[in-house]
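F.,

This is the one I mentioned.
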């Protein structure tokens, strides 16, 4: 039944896309985030789901939906430049070419599709539909994980979600970062969403998803979750006008986490202050030091999976350690060192530019929303996106998610929101100028 249900959802995206082409792109987001091909027992796991939906998304836009493209191409251009640089590094100077092409295969799809997203999602309905589909797709992993945490408790390295393994959202740190990211967006959809009917049921549904996100983040026992929750809490508190209310709620949530979690969670989180004694935390620091030394001699980076050639030495190794404290092939465990080690200073610079223009675009949307009533929802979404993006970037300091779709979707969504706000602003200015003209000149087009 599960496979049939997932296949029907997949077919519904394909059928609706013939009427509204942007639905093809929604289908690609669903396939990319929910990965139904990894959950289904038959049908979808036997066909290239992402490839088919991707071809339909791009073809549907080119043939049926090429109207009102965005006028600001900064994000798309920078993303394409970054994708080209990643391809060059993989083709010409990758230090681990055997595995580099494997990572390039999925990373390049993420980058190119996200560069394409601002062309598709332009209106309020389309932008909200994008977030609804993204949140529900992530919920495929978050909701069952959070429910199992509540019923039986969490644990470090436990597979409690719908998808098992140790990659993507099935990896604890990545899942914790994604779960904390969803909280501000779910709060926005509960208050300002228009696609779902307003009722107590939908309101409590979003509350339940927020609770599941918090439970999932805490239940992973990942220290990344604490970083993400703190950043989300502070960001929401700074942006809201009801600081007392949100301050009390934040303190209540923190108290529930502290007193409602097990001793195992508390012991795991307490290792943050003992990084020199914790092999995982100390290993990160040693890998980061190796990365800085590596790019001194290789400023262009080492291509995808460059970490496979690293060699770090732990001080004071255990007498029982057969390798005498020497470890090779230790992952970067950081967005910034991952991109620096793989794409060099140029790649890191392009990535930093994408981060800055995304945050700057969201800040501009907030300003414009204060002046134009039709952009009120846009301003609230920009605030939520800012909180989510800051949470992912903060978590990413300790997790290697530099090419994960969930991060790049937020960058692309920032460009979509900015383009829509700019379009509404220009339309408002045109109308105000036309109204100010004498009646005998009102029919003349306003430049």
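My design for it:
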């Amino acid at each position: 039944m599960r496979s049939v249900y997932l296949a029907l959802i997949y077919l519904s995206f394909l059928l609706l896309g013939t009427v509204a082409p942007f639905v093809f792109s929604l289908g690609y987001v669903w396939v990319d985030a929910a990965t139904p091909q990894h959950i289904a027992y038959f049908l979808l796991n036997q066909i290239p789901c992402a490839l088919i939906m991707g071809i339909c998304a791009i073809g549907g836009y080119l043939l049926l939906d090429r109207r009102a493209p965005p006028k600001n191409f900064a994000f798309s251009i920078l993303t394409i430049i970054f994708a080209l640089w990643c391809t060059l590094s993989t083709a010409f100077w990758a230090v681990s070419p055997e595995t580099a092409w494997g990572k390039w295969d999925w990373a390049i799809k993420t980058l190119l599709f996200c560069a394409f997203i601002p062309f598709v999602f332009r209106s309020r309905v389309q932008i909200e539909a994008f977030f609804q589909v993204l949140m529900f797709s992530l919920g495929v992993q978050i909701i069952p994980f959070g429910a199992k945490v509540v019923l039986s408790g969490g644990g470090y390295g436990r597979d409690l979600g719908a998808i098992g393994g140790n990659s993507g959202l099935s990896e604890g740190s990545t899942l914790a970062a994604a779960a904390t990211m969803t909280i501000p967006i779910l709060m926005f959809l509960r208050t300002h969403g228009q696609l779902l009917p307003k009722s107590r049921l939908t309101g409590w549904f979003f509350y339940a998803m927020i609770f599941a996100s918090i439970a999932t983040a805490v239940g992973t026992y990942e220290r990344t979750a604490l970083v993400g929750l703190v950043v989300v809490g502070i960001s929401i508190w700074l942006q809201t006008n009801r600081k007392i209310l949100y301050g009390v709620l934040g303190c209540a949530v923190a108290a529930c986490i502290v007193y409602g979690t097990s001793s195992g969670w508390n012991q795991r989180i307490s290792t943050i202050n003992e990084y020199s004694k914790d092999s995982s935390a100390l290993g990160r620091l040693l890998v980061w030091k190796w990365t800085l030394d590596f790019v001194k001699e290789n400023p262009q980076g080492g291509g995808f999976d460059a970490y496979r050639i690293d060699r770090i030495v732990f001080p004071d190794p255990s007498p029982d350690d057969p390798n005498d404290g020497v470890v090779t092939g230790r992952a970067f465990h950081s967005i910034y060192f991952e991109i620096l080690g793989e794409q060099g200073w140029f790649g890191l610079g392009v990535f930093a530019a994408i981060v800055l223009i995304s945050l700057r675009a969201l800040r501009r949307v907030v300003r414009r929303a204060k002046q134009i009533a039709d952009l009120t929802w846009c301003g609230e979404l920009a605030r939520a996106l800012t909180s989510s993006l800051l949470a992912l970037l903060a978590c990413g300091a300790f997790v290697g998610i530099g090419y994960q779709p969930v991060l790049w979707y937020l960058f692309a969504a920032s460009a979509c929101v900015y383009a829509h706000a700019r379009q509404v602003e220009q339309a408002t200015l045109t109308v105000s100028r036309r109204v100010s003209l004498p009646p005998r000149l009102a029919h003349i087009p306003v430049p």
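The mean pLDDT is 86.

Talk soon.
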